[in-house]
Fold this protein.
Amino acid sequence: MAGSVNLCTLIEQFGDEGKCREYLEALRWHGGVKCPRCSHDKASKIANREQYYCVACHYNFSVTAGTIFNDSHLPLMKWFLATYLLCESRKGMSANQIKRTLGISYKTAWYLCHRVRAAMKEVNPEPLDGIVEMDETFVGGKKHGHGVYEARKAKEVVVGIKQRGGELRFFHAADVKAGTLAKYIKENVSDDVQVIMTDDFVSYPFAMDRAGHSRSKHKTINHSSGVYVDGDITTNGIESAFSLLKRGIIGTWHKVSAKHLAAYLDEMTFRFNNRNNPYLFRDTLLKLLEAPVLEYRKLTAA
């Protein structure tokens, strides 16, 4: 399947298990079938079964062996539909909506969504460069008491970094201290960055120092004085991404626990960074084939 896909073509092309397996085989073994146990490339198809036999280590296996799909009793067609829906829904899709759409239990839908999110997590992404915007926001929780401090104390911190015209990163942070912000700058921003733009929050200049960046590379927009654009100095890009995140939390997921917040951030950033990718569905299936298996007991552990 080449190029972008819509729901109608998805159903037409992958309407049964056989077609889904054929596509997964083409994605996983485009150079020929390989044994997932010993990597030997001499395997024969077992008659009347969706399995292969490795002549080297005598292992029987299928295309789902060793993948996220292997321990699931869910039909592959429903995996494909769920993956498509999570890829194409700009603000995400709740487990309840997946449950209703696919006709499965809430527990199955919730676990399915989290396994897709786990596959969406980017590993060792390229450092952000050029003009970078950085900001922090607070999500979830209920306000207790009065004032900004009391309201924020009940919430979770999300740090956002966005390359202008490029990729986005979201992080569930412990706090907004200079050392914490410096860690995210150091791990995600190139040493050769042109400029880092932030608001006038007091921690940022010290974070720049700790991250090893010259303060000459730091430009500030004075939000506390009501200024949001000063020439090319603005953090409107990262704030727009925060707005999309909050619409997802409020309008789609409704409630996100602190424990799983990072997974939802991974989903949102993956979808944002691939918003112009015509092969997004295919590439997400590839990540599902390659991702480590996420066990339910690990996902629900305290």
About this structure: DSSP finds twelve helices and eight strands in the chain. Residues 30 and 112 are 26 Å apart (CA to CA).
